[in-house]
Amino acid sequence: MVTAASSAPDESIKRLLPWVVAVAFFMQSLDTTILNTAVPAIAEAMDVTPLNVKSVLASYTLSLAVFIPISGWMADRFGTRRVFAAAIGLFTLGSLLCGLATSIEMLVAFRVLQGMGGAMMMPVGRMTLARTFAKGDLVKAMSFVAIPALIGPMIGPVAGGAIVHWLHWSVVFFLNIPVGMLGLYLVLRLLPDYREAETHPLDYVGLVLFGSGIALLSYVLEVFGDHTHGTGAILGMLALSAALLAGYGIRAVSTAFPLLDLTLFRIRTFRAAVSGGFFTRLGLGGIPFLFPLLYQIGLGFSPIQSGLLVLPQAIASLGMKTFLPVILARFGYRTVLLVNTVMCGVMIMTFFTVGAETPIWRIVAQSLVLGFFTSMQYTAMNTLVYADVVGRQTSGASTIYTTGQQLAISFGVAGAALVAAFFVPSGNAAESAAIIHGVQQAFLVLGILTVVSAVVFVELKADDAADVARRDKPSAAPDHHGEH
Known about the structure:
With 484 residues, the protein is mainly alpha-helical. 75% of the residues lie in helices and 1% in strands.
């Protein structure tokens, strides 16, 4: 039974709610990409190698992996407003402390604190939207929220390059403080406070098994290709991670109140959204990693110029916001996801042809089209996951989906790096032509993988999620039994 600590939000608050969630998503999505640009400056300031600074990136990823699984339980137990506010507060505090850090060890510790907050933001934000909006209005709300999450990675390299060039690396972290304060104010003023009247005990055994397994897997993906560990160590950690996750699978079906409710996978739309989202993001997740390599190292553009070249994707996502509800209402989720997944893969493969002689206008045009299809893909999957879940299932669905999303992106980056490195001839890693060749092959492989992933959506039926896609008829209100 879902209750609300406050009355159901009126229409004026519902209009503002996507903005509240969008502010948090923007801050989180901007942070990671903007930090990547500052890695060399941080390494120089702290007198370490850039490879050592990767622990700063890995610590955040590991923190996400551990704390995302408990986000649903936390929201059910303490309320969405309190948990979301705490998440933004932790993230903002972590940003302040990171900017003040004087050693790499301090920076790693404070990034863990940031990750604790970041882990709660996305699943709790999506959960709040799913419980507030009727099914027929969810596409519009989610498509709006997806825009800043897409814009963040696009402007991150530009902002990061400018900050490092003209200011100081610590400003990368201080930038989050005003955004976080604004988000905190909006959350406390406007966010509905949904929570369960009764919550089951937290599955601590499941948390240890799943959290350890996911954290170890995330760590392997972060260090993969760095040659910091031998092949035997990598395989050993992968085996241990698999054993821990298998142990969690056994635990989940044998306990009354599992950490993650795996029975949700019996719901066809949820299963397609999670599995399809995972495999699609394996291809799409590596793109933000490949673009800076291609543009900066391969084609010789500055970080700012490189960032400007990916801005068309953000512009296209704004245009998509208008078209997606109409397209889904006309064709349905099955057709849209089957066709759009293939189009995403085809557009990724077109970057296989980008080289030193490619005119700028063509790169911009390809980025625009890729941005349109990518944004449509993410928003469609982000709403499909909630199509047939109700009540307290929403928190579990949001947690599982976000966990899969985080893992898929990590796999995508690791896979893109592996493919690119494989096709760069030994001894030519610093040559632009070699980098271009390796990145081109990676685009080709990721594009093919994305096209193949469309098969996951075949199991959907033509009328699946019709109440979410349909706009011509009013949808039933969200299930808030006991809300007052």
